Structure to design on (297 residues):
């Protein structure tokens, strides 16, 4: 089949327009844009903005592809050193799912675009087509802004989104690394994250642990954060978090006491735990000397 490339000699907007038209035509176009390419001839996308792929979601997509076929083609560009091979621009979930479905080939649109536009095309197409995790989405926005020197307003216009949505998503990068990882793992939602970002990072971590441990709703989290921010002494935690912190302390204390007790017993010193206290009994001076070596005093 002759390979017709989308966007030859034209700008990024024209390329995305042709891709959109092919999608809307449900692949039944006669333009020759959509071709079938062997899966083993497609190389990974070096510019992939998505960092995490949900295995369950991939299996669901693979099952859908097996039953209904691929509803949207992937985007690729020719390897300049070997025109029998292609680099993926966008559609990695579809590509991975097709492999899981044991497909030998996949529908694709071959894009002819300048190398310096590839990152922008990959970012924009993925942002528009894929349900990116909010942290990955924030990184994609940040890359567009930094790589191309454009403003939040320009990103919003290019992606047909509000400026507030761009700015609020970018604020998620102010979350601590621990909280960002929880969002990436889908353990806390974007709604939770938007509330936490207003707090210092050490407090973000504490409240995020409570969200996960107590399965707090966004509304409950909002009340806790408001209570914390309204407190005259910002060092005093809301009661619900004080209780959580106390439980954690009690659990840690119990672990430490049990460990100390076992060490003493292993050294022949009589020790016991009663009411959260470590009680040590000495039979002679030798045991006292042993104790002082184990726990210098």
């Amino acid at each position: 089949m002759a390979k017709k490339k989308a966007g030859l000699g034209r700008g990024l907007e024209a390329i995305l327009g042709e891709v959109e038209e092919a999608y809307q035509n449900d692949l039944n176009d006669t333009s020759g844009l959509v071709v079938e390419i062997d899966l083993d001839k497609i190389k990974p996308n070096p510019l992939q903005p998505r960092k995490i792929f949900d295995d369950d979601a991939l299996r669901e997509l693979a099952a859908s592809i097996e039953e209904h076929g691929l509803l949207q083609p992937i985007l690729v560009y020719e390897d300049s050193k070997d025109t029998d091979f292609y680099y993926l621009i966008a559609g990695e979930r579809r590509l991975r799912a097709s492999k899981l479905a044991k497909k030998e080939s996949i529908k694709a649109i071959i894009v002819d675009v300048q190398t310096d536009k590839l990152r922008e095309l990959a970012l924009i197409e993925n942002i528009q087509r894929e349900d990116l995790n909010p942290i990955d989405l924030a990184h994609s926005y940040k890359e567009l802004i930094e790589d191309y020197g454009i403003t939040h307003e320009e990103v919003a216009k290019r992606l047909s989104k509000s400026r507030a949505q761009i700015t609020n998503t970018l604020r998620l990068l102010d979350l601590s690394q621990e909280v960002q990882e929880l969002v990436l793992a889908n353990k806390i939602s974007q709604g939770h994250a938007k509330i936490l970002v207003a707090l210092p990072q050490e407090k973000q971590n504490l409240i995020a642990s409570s969200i996960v441990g107590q399965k707090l709703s966004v509304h409950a989290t909002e009340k806790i954060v408001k209570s914390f921010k309204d407190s005259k002494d910002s060092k005093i935690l809301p009661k619900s978090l004080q209780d959580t912190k106390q439980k954690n302390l009690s659990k840690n204390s119990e672990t430490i006491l049990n460990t100390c007790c076992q060490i003493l017993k292993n050294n022949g010193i009589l020790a016991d735990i009663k009411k959260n206290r470590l009680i040590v009994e000495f039979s002679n001076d030798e045991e006292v000397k042993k104790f002082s070596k184990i726990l210098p005093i």
Q: What stands out?
A: The chain has 13 helices and seven strands. The mean pLDDT is 75. The two ends are 84 Å apart (CA to CA). The longest strand covers residues 82-90.
